[in-house]
Design brief:
Layout (H helix, E strand, L loop, with lengths): L1 E6 L5 E4 L1 H9 L6 E5 L5 E7 L4 H13 L13 H10 L2 E7 L2 E2 L5 E7 L5 E8 L1
Antiparallel strand pairs: 1-8, 2-7, 3-5, 3-8, 4-7, 5-6
């Protein structure tokens, strides 16, 4: 298993990690898929459009409208919104590999989603 370090700069942001994952995939000769897993409760991973950066900003904006920070939560750390957002987006994705490349759609990219940054995070990369 590989461990990728992701440094986030803002409380909420999407970081395109498609190139980093593609580079790791290129080094694998027999892998048929890659499992990406975020071992944090206030971060997530997703696949979405990577041609237009306004898409990820729209997602972040609407998540904030749906689950605003500072809302009345019972959790006392002040980051309950981040836990909810992480649960909605998800902690893992599985991407097929064909001929040494990620089998993503034309407009798709892989994003690390931060909801409680800035932080230094881990992403586990397991080839299957």
């Amino acid at each position: 298993m590989e461990v990728l370090t992701v440094k986030t700069l803002r409380r909420c942001q999407f970081i395109d990690i498609t190139n980093e994952i593609s580079e790791l995939v290129a080094k694998q000769s027999n892998a048929k898929a890659v499992l990406l897993y975020v071992p944090h409760t206030t971060a997530a991973i997703t696949i979405n459009e990577n041609a237009d950066p306004t898409v990820t900003q729209d997602i972040l904006n609407h998540l904030e409208k749906m689950i605003p920070s500072g809302s009345h939560f019972r959790h006392s750390e002040g980051n309950s919104d981040a836990h909810v957002k992480s649960s909605l987006i998800g902690a893992s994705i599985l991407v097929p590999i064909e001929a040494g490349s990620l089998s993503l759609g034309t407009w798709q990219g892989i994003y690390f989603a931060e909801f409680d940054g800035p932080r230094t995070r881990k992403l586990y990369v397991q080839f299957l």
